[in-house]
Amino acid sequence: MSEHNEPNAPDEQPAKPENRLRKELPEEVPAPAPAPEPAPEQQTEEPLTGRQRLVKGLWPPRLTRAQLIVALLLFGLGFGLAVQVASTSDSDSALRGARQEDLVRILDELDARTQRLEDEKQGLEKQRQELQSSSDQAAEARKQTAEKEKQLGILAGTVAAQGPGITMTIEDTKGTVKADMLLDAIQELRAAGAEAIQVNGVRVVAGTYFTDSGNGVGVDGNKINAPYRFKVIGKPQDLEPALNIPGGVVQTLEKEQATVTVQQSGKIVVDALRQAKRPDYARSSSQ
């Protein structure tokens, strides 16, 4: 017998490899569907309270350079105050723990120091008063010297002067007024308190003299002519009556047919000056 294997029929072909692998893998699991996104109104966070905002602002700490410097300064100030308080407490405790003899000695030293300071203060006060007094005396001496110089200058005719007084004008149309009549008027004015006198631009001083000079009069060698104008500084209430007394200057001049006019004034200016002469022989006794 002859038996042989016949080839397989076409429909009995072996299975393909990919089908075999598919059978060995697990079944596919479908992916879960994505969750729906929340609505916009559900995404907003709840508002923070005041305490939560404070905690969030303070922690974690965020220090700047300026804040760090201020913190260091405050620390240094606190440390200094603490040291000062500690030192004061130590000194107070030392005094509280001192013996009675030590306390008495400390009080004596303080009293002695106070006395020395008081003595020094009094000495300085005395020096200040002496300096002030000497300065005031020197200033007063200079002031008096300046005033005395002005007074002597007025009497000597070396400085101008002004003040209340009178103006006396003598009209002499007949030429009968002589030098002695004018000199009598000067003497009467001086006796009444005249302090400065000027006649026709010539300053009258202690050594002034009058002379007859032709149709006029000579004053210290300077010829003056009528009308004769006297400018006199003094108390007007004393000067004018002195000229008008019975038998006085005014009546004497009127007898010589001269006209005399006296006028009081609150301001008379005597500006005629004399050159100061240095004496040839007289010297101050203080030199």
Helix content: 40-55%
**How is the main sheet built?**
5 strands, antiparallel
Overall mean confidence score, pLDDT: 79
Low-confidence stretches: 1-12
Strand adjacency order, main sheet: 3-2-7-1-8
Radius of gyration: 64 Å
Structural class call reads alpha+beta
Proportion of residues in β-strands: 15-25%
Overview of the molecule:
The chain is of the alpha+beta class and 287 residues long. The protein contains eight helices and eight strands. It has helices spanning 17-24, 40-43, 50-58, 65-96, 100-156, 179-191, 236-243, 249-255, and strands spanning 161-171, 196-199, 202-204, 210-213, 216-219, 222-224, 228-233, 259-270. It has a five-stranded antiparallel sheet with strand order 3-2-7-1-8. β5 and β6 (222-224) form a beta hairpin. The longest helix has 57 residues, at 100-156. It is elongated, with a radius of gyration of 64 Å. The N and C termini lie far apart (196 Å). Mean pLDDT is 79; it is low at 1-12.
Write the layout of secondary structure elements.
Blueprint: H1 17-24, H2 40-43, H3 50-58, H4 65-96, H5 100-156, E1 161-171, H6 179-191, E2 196-199, E3 202-204, E4 210-213, E5 216-219, E6 222-224, E7 228-233, H7 236-243, H8 249-255, E8 259-270
Which terms summarize this structure?
287 residues, alpha+beta, 5-stranded antiparallel beta sheet, 3-stranded antiparallel beta sheet, 8 helices, disordered N terminus
